[in-house]
From TrEMBL:
Annotated GGDEF domain residues: 14-76
Any one of the GO BP annotations: cell adhesion involved in single-species biofilm formation
Gene3D superfamilies membership: 3.30.70.270
CC annotations in GO: plasma membrane
Entries under PROSITE patterns matching the protein: GGDEF
Database matches in InterPro entries: Diguanylate_Cyclase, GGDEF_dom, Nucleotide_cyclase, Rev_trsase/Diguanyl_cyclase
Protein name, entry field: GGDEF domain-containing protein
Amino acid sequence: HLNEMARVAENEQQSLALLLIDIDGFKDVNDAYTHHAGDAVLKQMSHLLQNYVPKKTRIFRNGGEEFSIVLRDCSL
């Protein structure tokens, strides 16, 4: 998906930004409250990210507690 987004952005002469998010201490949540609780935290994080980013934005879970956010046509 990222390669395709980069190709489209280049063709349309748009900027592209990649944000990486890692939830520090997430292993402690799994250890203290079980993996079921950890899954609930990850789902909630996903919903929060989806609700607070622009519509052109793509959100990916990289694995574990890591997320990538790709912003198209944005100025920083």
